[in-house]
Amino acid sequence: MSEAVFAPTDEAQAAEIVRASQIPGAIDIVGGDTRRGFGRPRVGARQMSMAKLSGIVFHEPAEMILRARSGTPMRAIEASLDAHKQILPFEPMDPRPLWGTTGEPTVGGLVATALSGPRRISAGAVRDSLIGLRFVNGAGEILNTGGRVMKNVTGLDLVKILCGSHGTLGLTLEATFKLLPRPETEATIVLRRLDDISAIEAMSRALGSPYGLSGVATIHAGMGRDFPRTLLRLEGFSESVAYRVERLQTLLAEYDPRHVLNPPESDRMWRSIRDLDFLAEPRERAIWRVSVKPSLGAQLLKHIGQTALASLLDWGGGIVWIASDATEAAATTIRAATRACGGHATLMRAADWLRGRIDVFEPPSPWAMAQTQKLKASLDPHGVFNAGRMYRL
Amino acid sequence: MSEIAFPVPDPTILARRAEIHAGLAAILPPQALIVDETGRRAFETDALTAYRRLPLAVTLPRTTEEVARVMRFCREAGVNVTPRGAGTSLSGGAIPLEDSVVVGLSKMNAILEINLADRYARVEAGVTNLGISEAVGPEGFFYAPDPSSQLACTIGGNIAMNSGGAHCLKYGVTINNLLGVKLVTYEGEIVEIGGPALDPEGVDWLGLICGAEGQLGIVTEATVRLLRLAEGARPVLFGFDSADQAGQCVADILGSGILPVAMEYMDKPAIHITENFAHAGYPMDVEAMLIVEVEGGAREMAIELDKITAIAQKHGVRTIRESQSAMESAQIWKGRKSAFGATGRIADYICMDGTVPTSRLPEALRRTGEICASYGLGVANVFHAGDGNMHPLILYNCNDASEQQKAESAGADILKMCVELGGCLTGEHGVGIEKRDLMSHQYSAAELDQQMRVRKIFDPQARMNPGKVFPLEERAA
Asked: Partner of B329 for a Cys bridge, out of B250, B323, B386, B414, CB 3.0 to 4.6 A?
């Protein structure tokens, strides 16, 4: 990693640097640099480290909200949440295992990449919990959007477009999140040896039940495992979890639901799913994340065939994680299968050369691409931030 | 505050009325176009009835293609467009202008697809909010956001305003339950955004469009998440001697790790008005009342209610009434959901919709009372306490012009206070015309300019639902 050229110590300084950098591709924004393998390779002239704009601005446990500066390490957020038995609802991943990085993931990186974990199916995505942002636009103006309350429909919601924009639209200064109480306990029902068709059926039936599942995934055989496992997580008060485990076991009797993981095994299992531990090695493989209608998860994998060297279904089949060879041929196969299933595919990890040559994100429709360019121009008219990070210029 | 201003109608457009009527008649079947004055009269206002403007023409397209035709015609003719669902907006979001063409979605009310395996429904924008839940209810599913107007309001209107409801404490608001839309742009282009998958691709256009008050295009179809109904739901009523006790109870419940499905607050005037109308069995001798609802299996609910009741007792709860039957639960909710209607029977009212941080609720309630008293007006408070979304109903007599002005001034003062306490102008009703001129209290000029620049990428001349959301002078600039 090259040295950061800019390292503002306060937001006025950050805005001043932006105002003094009004040329295309002037600044690449860097948080903890733990997700640097995500997105198209950096081409910006200079790096701006947000590390010194760090710290929790407030954590109001009774209001279930937290605001932090963008350089705040996620570790600091987790420590404060732990102290009050609260969580970020969307179960953010630790990016380091997948991308093989060290250092500290930050709030800014979380907002930029907007990757939601397994609990997204019941508690919403990053953007559903992100209720406010303070940011610098490309003109160097410090702006607020959203706020600190959960219900807010005042004006255009720019939070949504900034969240997940990989720093291409603005420089995050502060982010405000809505929180949830940490569930008292959890349990995971494990269905063994289901083929994909049965796994999808079982996951759909569980998600269509009244028992409020907070994690529904299938880990395929391989990756050091001799048979597939379909995992169904329940969280809440212990009496409630016990009751719902029993009801789900009745509902899914035909799938042999007698195996149950309790803490800490259950927790450890979901952490591995969240962080893609099963797919991280070998490191030279490309990792894809395909989003489809959940019932099509199995069909997608059938289309992809042997190109998928290892795979994992999350969100009840709605997210398919795939490891493939890092080749253009594999990319072509995966993209074609994705189109056939009406989904969209993101190349999450691959060597720089491959991410420079093929589309990392699903190519937008002509309308969406034109709008994306206009949106970029409306927020960052000179193209100062993260040039080419999402789409080819 | 003086009466809310409307943009001055463009005389050249008004002068071309006959030509515009003829142009619309050429692209729409007769039953999809209303040009006579009596017919147009029905579309001159919404639920902000103190304001009205007779639109230039009313179109009621039956297909997305017809909507696109109207949009292309309006763009070429340089005419403003006012989208309309059921016209239940409390902020004037659907009030037309004299030089605008209304595009009403009421005839697009088909449910196109229900997929329970993937838990979504695809519907036309004119389907009512409740219509979705009714269609999937027999299968044990529902669509979660439940604004009080859910019997009448449409999903298209809900998307425009990013509507909430009583149960969004657990289930979220419209955007949290929306998967995709079909959008007709002001250019008349038909675009698909999102779909049955949970994850957006590229820019989150859906998140931007939802809540944009119809200024980025007209939504003609929506794909919404369906959720499985809980095994059961049970509300409990708590009566308190003071607003402070009730407010503290709310904060403690939220801080305790319990997340009820709903937590609703009513003050004494609201309790009395509602009880006299709905006979819901509300306690008449308390200053404040909470309705707290939990869901789950019978035993799960009993355990949660025990924990919640213990917290209420810590805060000196005086009356506790736990629902013992489905009928009793329905009665408790009937009272809450009819609160606005019941208030309308005894007085005219304007309903404010600011949100404050939940820790500031007691202070916000006290100051709301003081503000209204200073104008000599009564107020009833009934709102979503769990998320701090207040709904003071300011009571006045609409036949007394000075009272209406006082009520609007009191409302503006209350909303400014909400912003000052760290909240916002509107939690779920939208800005519309009603709060448009207060926007500069929440946003800086640079922030409003940035929002308007984003709006312009969809509609460079700001012809979609003009006169709403952004202060008029900002728009002129």
From this structure: B323
